[in-house]
Amino acid sequence: MNDKTNSLDAFWMPFTANRQFKAAPRILTEAKGMYYKADDGREILDGTAGLWCCNAGHSREQITEAVSRQIAKLDYAPPFQMGHPLPFELAERLTQHSPEGLNRVFFTNSGSESVDTALKIAIAYHRLRGQGTRQRLVGREKGYHGVGFGGISVGGLVNNRKFFGSLLNGVDHLPHTLNIKANAFTKGLPENGAELANELENIVALHDASCIAAVIVEPFAGSAGVVLPPEGYLKRLREICTKHGILLIFDEVISGYGRIGDAFAANRFGVKPDIITTAKGLTNGAIPMGAVFVSDDIYNTFMDGPEGIELFHGYTYSGHPVAAAAGLATLDIYEQEGLFSRALELESYWQEAVHSLKGEPNIIDIRNIGLVAGIEFAPSEAGVGKRGYEVFLNCFEQGCLVRATGDIIAMSPPLIIEKPQIDRLVESIAKAARAVS
User: Fold this and answer.
1) Rounded distance, CA 414 to CA 143, Å?
2) Side-chain half-sphere of 57: how many Cα atoms within 13 Å?
3) pTM of this prediction exceeds 0.90
4) Over the chain, what is the mean pLDDT?
5) What is the 3-state secondary structure (H, E, C) of 337-376?
6) How far is 254 from 52, CA to CA, in rounded Å?
7) What GO molecular function annotations does the UniProt record carry, in alphabetical order (predicted)?
8) Which DSSP string corresponds to 81-133?
9) Burial class (CB in 10 A: 0-12, 13-18, 19+), 378
10) Helix 339-355 vs helix 321-336: angle between axes, to the nearest 10 degrees?
């Protein structure tokens, strides 16, 4: 760092090799539009929308001004038994973009909290309907649903699970849908693998539907390295869940707010879940906030119960005034600039650009949809993840920020990206692939 007196020791960084990072830190000091600025003065092209969240680009004036006005007017209001106008307004506007029938919104502070909220609502819903035996949850291998105990229990990433004991009881997992042998270098959704959804029938046969509350999946798995649903897979999951009275939860913390060409992946894929979890792009990453969209049927079931508090759940910062102001300003930008559909408009160009990497050293698969792509490398002799990390570092040295997850490079740029910037991102990966081969 330029300031040698600023120690890095006190901050225990999340999901980071702390000793490795602090030996050679990569510090970002500013951001505007499509670019970060590093502490050495270099501009860094953002190929990851921060961490899947800055969909409208960085430091947007509308958001900055809205946050500044709100914090001066009303910095905080308690959400328990009290209210203020903004979360009501934000919820109403958000439901104009959610799938038909998902018209109720519960606010949280993160994707992790959104997932745990959704799981609790699902189990409580069945209890209120006189089906209290429906307590089991079904996740999926390679799934990422945040870092709460509920989320890591239904999640399917081994490093997120193995250190933390037995987790929640009563959780099963569907097989993941990644099949490089059958689907390598597919453009868009893979054709092979829809039948994997039928594994849910085997879980039902094992436990009986009367014991299963909900299935939770990401429409596409982002943190696992952009694992896409085969054609017809999500529709089949919906059919099986409906058949057996099981709630279907879509975790759209990554896919929501325009990432694949619609406000929600549920809209793009034409499959309506019962609950949708979101966060990240809700406020463009400016202020922590999450939102859980719930079907009218679920909400009305709670409202038809005994008088009093219908759901004993919530957070100190649910619907926080400043976060809600950021959310409203972000939604204004999405709507005014047509960003919910921009990924679809750029999809063909993006697709051809990323697939031009086929044939570069050690690239064994490329997966894409909307404005997201996963570039998978063969592991090096040094070990799994080493090559992916070296590619990530090389791209950063070139002035481009991409994300390494194992030996997969994930890209999810802000939706305001232009074609020359797409070309630059792709070229940086090509150069990095050759440099670290």
Assistant:
1) 23
2) 17
3) yes
4) 97
5) CCHHHHHHHHHHHHHHHHHCCCCCCCEEEEEEECCEEEEE
6) 6
7) pyridoxal phosphate binding; transaminase activity
8) S---HHHHHHHHHHTTTSPTT--EEEEESSHHHHHHHHHHHHHHHHHHTT-TT
9) exposed
10) 70
Tens digit of pLDDT for each residue in 128-164?
Answer: 999 999 999 999 999 999 999 999 999 999 999 999 9
Residue type, 124: A
What are the structure tokens assigned to 100, written together?
A: 């038909």
**The residue to which tokens 């037995």 are assigned:** 166
**Is there a common fold for 18-56+338-435 and 64-336?**
no
If DSSP codes are grouped into helix, strand and coil, which group holds residue 175? coil
| Inter-axis angle of helices 296-303 and 111-128, nearest 10 | 60
Which single residue is written with the structure tokens 């792709």? Answer: 426
55 within 8 A of 281, measured Cβ to Cβ: yes
Beta-carbon contacts of residue 389 (< 8 Å; ≥ 6 apart): 404
Could you tell me how far CA 225 lies from the centroid of its own chain?
12
CATH number given to 18-56+338-435? 3.90.1150.10
pLDDT at 437: 80
Domain coordinates of the chain in residue numbers? 18-56+338-435, 64-336
Report yes or no: 108 and 318 within 8 Å, Cβ to Cβ: yes
Query: Which of 134, 120, 170 lies closest to 244, judged by CA?
Result: 134
CATH code 3.40.190.10 for 64-336: no
- Max intra-chain CA distance, the chain: 66
E runs forming strands in 161-240: 171-174, 212-217
